[in-house]
Amino acid sequence: MPPAIAFVDMLCLSSQMKKCLHANSSRPSEDRLTTVQFHPIAQVVMTAGLDQSVSLFQVDGKTNPKIQSIHLERFPVHRAQFSRDGDTVIATSLKNKMFYLYDMMEGRVTPVHTVRGLNEARVKEFSVCPEGGALLLTGTNGYLHLLTLQTKEVIRSMKINGDVVGVAFSHDGSKVFANSEDGEVYVWDMRSSRCVNRFTDEGCVKGTSIAASPNGQYLACGSQSGVVNVYSQEACLNSANPKPLKAVMNLLTSATSMTFNPSSEILAIASRDEDEAVRLVHMSSLTVFSNFPVSKRKIVYRTSCLDFSPHSGFFSLANNKGHAPLFRLLHYKDF
């Protein structure tokens, strides 16, 4: 499809974004939501937050009925994610070394108290590895730890200078991009655990987030100033001094959350430091949709997490009011 036609289609997408009932309207959180994530296969969305709960909802855009909700005693959830196959939820908290595994098929919640080879005071930030069966834990002092879920042990660790503020996997999982608080981006080969490239995010004083597009084309780096630099992923793999394709300057406070939609046509960016600070970037034209958020009254509030459904039919976010506003992207026909 020629870029001009794609851009017209995306403008239509923007104007045809329909506000739905909140994804978690049948069970709003009693505290700040920290997670919203769509299931990789089923038409289901998960929310989790500081009210010590993880909840699952059927997504129809109309009633979004609750499927199940579990309470984790004295465990405000900092991050929750589905495993690659969607059968398990992994949940971490703010000050615990322990984390939980929730087997949705068996309805079993298992606390993991001990991880062999992990010398960290707490497990807080993590990413599910694309090949499945492993987590990449963000440690302190620049450490990244690869943990296998089968044996609950760290099999290797990597280290960067400065603290890690975000990681993003390449589309095939062979590389991981680690953004540092110092504004440097490290590229690691996951098989050899070698750093294969390193570059400075242009103009960045303090890094805050990072995201890689599923098609392997783009890498987005967020900073404390709110600037999001979009790079060619190929340049980030091979060049010591890649130049941004675009500096997105629509956020005025720290760019804390970013995610690409599954087709890599849209980049969603947000700041949790200001109400309504969410923007959608059309990637082929590198322009920001002017009419999102779509409502005249506040519904987005302070956003801590963003996600698209598997075929981009829905978009949701987690806010500090305990809600997960849900939007139907009519340009995309499937869930």
UniProtKB/TrEMBL annotation:
Compartments, as annotated in UniProt: Nucleus, Nucleolus
WD repeat intervals: 164-198
Record key words, sorted: Nucleus, Phosphoprotein, Repeat, rRNA processing, WD repeat
Coiled coil: none
SUPFAM superfamilies xref list: WD40 repeat-like
Main location: nucleus
GO biological process: one example: rRNA processing
GO cellular component, one term: Pwp2p-containing subcomplex of 90S preribosome
Family classification: Belongs to the WD repeat UTP18 family.
Function: Part of the small subunit (SSU) processome, first precursor of the small eukaryotic ribosomal subunit. During the assembly of the SSU processome in the nucleolus, many ribosome biogenesis factors, an RNA chaperone and ribosomal proteins associate with the nascent pre-rRNA and work in concert to generate RNA folding, modifications, rearrangements and cleavage as well as targeted degradation of pre-ribosomal RNA by the RNA exosome. Involved in nucleolar processing of pre-18S ribosomal RNA.
Official protein name in the record: U3 small nucleolar RNA-associated protein 18 homolog
